[in-house]
Specification:
Structural class: mainly alpha
Number of strands: 0
Low-confidence stretches: 1-5, 200-207
Shape: flat
Length: 207
Amino acid sequence: ALFKEDRVEDALQLLEKNLQPTQLQADGYFLLGQIYDKIGEMEKSIIAFRLLVRLNPERALAYNLLGAALVKAKNFKGALGPLDQAVEISPDYADSYFNLAIAFEGLNQGKKALGNLLLAQRLYMNQENKKMYDFAGHMVSQWEDRFRLDRNKLNEFLPTAETLAKVSDIGMLRRRLKNSPNNIYWRQRLGSALMEISDFEEAVKQY
């Protein structure tokens, strides 16, 4: 509540007073990372998010927060690993593509920067996030000129938001099956999802 009210210092003191580092659970590291980020303590924010990843190794949000913190600290190369992991877990995670775009822009890799930004933009549109869609669109125009690239040509090679959403569902179903390998319901759901993206050979194995 204190964090939401922008009473950042009060929230930080409360957490640090009542929770020793060894006692913190995922929610504690999540809040600490955000608070440190907000007051500009990026090294502490990165440490908190690394611990969050350790506690939530299958959660895309944890990797995205770590990657975003590394980007903010201008450790662009270091940010790529966590952000790649975030989109591998959740291929329709718009914010992760956006942060990847910023990281590649910082590394002066224009094609990858613009490609990820275009993916983020189409996902924001699919999610009806007009604010981020418009913001990404403004950046696309700037980067297209800066890197001398054609967005239309890049768009031809990028997956649609719908395809990314389906791939994300498949990843979720695979993780559930990993935890419950004999669950017929999840296996059938996975087979149906694979059929939808024309992976017929793999789909047949699920039935």
